[in-house]
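Figure 6 in text form: structure in, sequence out.
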């Protein structure tokens, strides 16, 4: 399983409300539990000032870390500094020449 950043879903479903509604049941929802919440606070303490980590990105990254999932994102720069976070980035969607920290 791979955790998808919201930008992947936005890109995939551009202007296609009907397709979104059909596929919602196929997506797995991962609730924010106590462990994710506690470690989220640590991520914010470590990276919010030094790397401008935002709350949504911290929640996404921490969910991937806690659930031991690769994170699929178009914004590698927003996550590459987070220790132990495994990034999955499809080459054909890559907008920059950055190298993912953990190739597929």
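Output sequence:
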């Amino acid at each position: 399983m791979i955790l998808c950043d919201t930008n992947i879903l936005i890109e995939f479903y551009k202007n296609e409300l009907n397709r979104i509604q059909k596929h919602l049941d196929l997506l797995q929802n991962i609730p924010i539990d106590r462990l994710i919440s506690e470690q989220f606070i640590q991520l914010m303490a470590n990276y919010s000032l030094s790397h401008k980590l935002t709350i949504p990105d911290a929640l996404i990254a921490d969910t991937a870390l806690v659930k031991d999932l690769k994170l699929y994102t178009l914004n590698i720069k927003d996550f590459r500094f987070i220790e132990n976070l495994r990034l999955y980035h499809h080459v054909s969607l890559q907008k920059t020449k950055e190298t993912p920290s953990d190739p597929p």
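Caption detail: The longest helix spans residues 34-47.
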